[in-house]
Amino acid sequence: MLGAVVSFVGMAIAARELSAELDAVQILFWRSFAAALLMPALLYFYGWKQLKSSRYVMQLSRGALHCVAQCGWLFGITMIPLAEVFALEFTTPIWTVVFAALFLGERLSLERIAAVVIGFVGVLLILRPGTQIVDVASVVVLGSAALYAITYVMVRSLARTDTPLCIMFYMTYVQLALSFIGIMINWGMPSQGLWIWVVLIGAFGLSAHFCMAQALSKSEASEVIPIDFLRLPIVMVLAYFLYSETVDPWLVAGVLLIVLGNYWNVRSSRHKIK
Fold first, then answer.
1. What value does the mean pLDDT take over residues 227-239?
2. How many domains would you assign to the chain?
3. pTM
């Protein structure tokens, strides 16, 4: 799971470096292009039988939704502080609770309702609507977190029949196809000095999803998710030293509430398992 943490943070740093010349759609295309070139190596190592699936419609739908969510996340990376992007992204598990109840019929316990409420109070502290102009990028990232939650619910369904590599394969190539349409409208190619970041963002993207899938397949989510919380302090420190991004008290308070909401949700799941 630590591999996923490092990969997600590395992906954000690479995206920020690429944003010096490229917009979100262009970054998404080149990230998908690099990942698409690396994917055959994974399939050669683990076997092409990994791609066997009978749920093509859901795979394609999940890939399309993930593409939109990823584009919104990258837009946030290029526009607002990294710590705020990651804080808002951490509402994904909270959104997942809501969508799992709506679409999968999962029961909402009092503990899970409390987790959702606490998490969204944290969001309000970060955005502070009514006291300041809410940044459009912040709203976009929050919407991306909601879309990520829908794709997570879809992955939980797909994982019953398809392998993690199969899910990654469709995600990668659907993103490549859709972002290609976008980049044709506004073409942008990184300069020679940025190509290393293109390779890194593609590699980190594949590594993050692969490590997460492997961790969830070998351990309970209640054991894996708390480790993922390390992303927040790591990205805060790196953003401060690399980009001189400071963290205000409202963001810290919001982050603490979102993490508390996530922890409460994990705690609820753990008790349910017992």
1. 78
2. 1
3. 0.84
